[in-house]
Amino acid sequence: MAAIGSLAFIIGFGFFMAGAWPVIGFLGLEILIVWGAFKLNYRAARRRETLKTEADDLIIQRTDPNGKIDIETLSTAWLRVQITPSIAPTTAQRYRQRVILTSHGKSTEIGSFLHPAEKKHLANELTSMIGRARERQLHGD
């Protein structure tokens, strides 16, 4: 922000010296918009989902941008990972791909903030995590 502010100051000073002082207000508005975009981006970056498998359960811990934590538990015994639609949409299409977890009639979406290329990797990794949890459950570890 300091670099953008300095650049705007230099440009504004040049326009002020040339007699076009109203440009300074627009440069200030530009700085305000860039600052707002940075704030929104940093706020969205605080959103988190943490997945942890135990012998019997998959624990989903969601943290929203305000820091509120929500914990959801799904049984791994009948847990199913599904990507809908199975083929990633193009950028021109208006629908988005979703990773849905279903267990005992309860469904939840995870990774809604991820890029479609990352969602396929998430689904594969989650399937292997659930498989390892089921193996631990069967072997009693």
Automatic annotation (TrEMBL):
InterPro entries: DUF2244_TM, UCP032162_TM. The chain crosses the membrane at residues 6-38. Keywords: Membrane, Transmembrane, Transmembrane helix. This is DUF2244 domain-containing protein. The lineage of its organism: Bacteria, Pseudomonadati, Pseudomonadota, Alphaproteobacteria, Candidatus Puniceispirillales.
